[in-house]
From TrEMBL:
Domain of life: Bacteria
Pfam families recorded: MS_channel_2nd (PF00924)
Residue spans crossing the bilayer: 76-93, 114-135, 141-161
The keyword Protein biosynthesis belongs to this UniProt entry's keyword annotation: no
Identification of the protein by name: Mechanosensitive ion channel
Cell compartments where the protein resides: Membrane
GO cellular component: membrane
Signal sequence segment: 1-21
Family: Belongs to the MscS (TC 1.A.23) family.
Organism placement in taxonomy: Bacteria, Pseudomonadati, Bacteroidota, Cytophagia, Cytophagales
Single GO MF annotation: mechanosensitive monoatomic ion channel activity
UniProt entry tagged with the keyword Lipoprotein: no
Primary localization: membrane
Domain spans labelled Mechanosensitive ion channel MscS: 159-225
Length: 321
């Protein structure tokens, strides 16, 4: 009897513990299902929000902004500030480079050749900051505006565009640099500025000549020094037909060597040719020597001519008559 009671109590206890375990497992399963559902709802909401943002962005790109949104007083104010600051920064940088260039004969032409590039890059950066940083127009608006402006400007200012294109070609092709002595047509002098539209040259008579870049592109350009600080100087002297050319050559070379402007690292050459003037046969002598600084070209030419003529008069090869 006691055994039957014991077995009955054991069965009742087992069934009750099994029921409690089953209830715990069911509750845990229900909780996990609820959490999974909530996560899926959150994920679905995030995906829908991202899709709506993309659709809104597409609509914004397709729909150009109103003119009043782009051209407003704050935008105009900050654009003006950027232009003024950019102008003074570019001007100050160019001036500092010019000062350093004038202090160094060796690096003068190299430094001056960098100034036009810095000016162009500086204005490109200013325009980029204004467009992208202040106005921030959509890509479709930029393309449409650029196309319209390009067509209008192309018809209205073909010569200006030709000169600008010529200026860009000069900056990259470098047939000459700022500081070079060049000849374009009948104009000879030192290049003082290479702009987008024109190039400015100072002649030996101290005249400032402005030549459009389009005209330079269509003309032959003679460069006397090709980026170097020295250049060749030619002095011409006429001699009688019976002059001793060997002795005269020695005198001319010696006279050129004592000049304070001569560049002795390059040779001094004297050549003779026969010419006829006023029904007489004469000898034309050319003294070719290099000047140390291209800005002393005409001083060197004048000094060399004076010294040689003085020597020839002392030797009796030339007469005052």
């Amino acid at each position: 009897m006691n055994k039957l009671v014991f077995i009955s109590l054991w069965l009742i206890t087992s069934f009750s513990s099994y029921g409690q375990a089953s209830d715990s497992l069911s509750l845990a399963k229900i909780d996990s299902i609820v959490v999974a559902k909530v996560d899926s709802v959150h994920t679905l909401d995030s995906a829908q929000y991202a899709q709506q943002a993309v659709e809104k962005k597409k609509v914004d790109l397709k729909t150009p902004p109103q003119v009043t949104e782009l051209i407003s007083l704050p935008n105009l104010f900050w654009s003006l500030i950027f232009i003024i600051v950019g102008y003074f920064v570019i001007k100050f940088t160019s001036r500092i480079l010019e000062i350093f260039a004038e202090r160094s004969t060796k690096y003068r032409i190299t430094i001056k050749s960098v100034i036009p590039v810095i000016k162009i890059l500086g204005w490109v950066v200013v325009i980029f900051l204004i467009v992208v940083g202040i106005y921030q127009p959509p890509a479709s608006t930029v393309l449409a505006f650029s196309a319209s402006i390009g067509v209008a400007v192309g018809f209205a200012s073909q010569d200006i565009l030709k000169n600008i294109f010529g200026g860009i070609v000069i900056l990259f092709d470098r047939p000459f640099n700022s500081g070079d002595k060049i000849q374009v047509g009948d104009t000879y002098g030192e290049v003082v500025e290479i702009g987008l539209r024109s190039t400015r040259i100072v002649t030996p008579d101290d005249n400032l000549v402005t030549i459009p870049n389009g005209e330079i592109m269509n003309s032959s350009v003679s460069n006397a020094n090709a980026g170097e600080a020295n250049c060749q100087v030619v002095a011409e002297i006429y001699l009688p037909i019976n002059a001793d050319t060997v002795h005269v050559r020695a005198l001319a070379i010696q006279a050129a060597q004592v000049s304070k402007y001569v560049f002795l690292n390059k040779p001094i050459v004297v050549v003779f040719s026969n010419e006829h003037k006023e029904r007489q046969s004469i000898i034309k002598m050319k003294i070719k020597a290099y000047v140390l600084d291209i800005r002393d070209e005409f001083k060197f030419k004048s000094e060399m001519t004076e010294i040689v003529i003085k020597k020839l008069l002392e030797e009796g090869i030339l007469t005052k008559d």
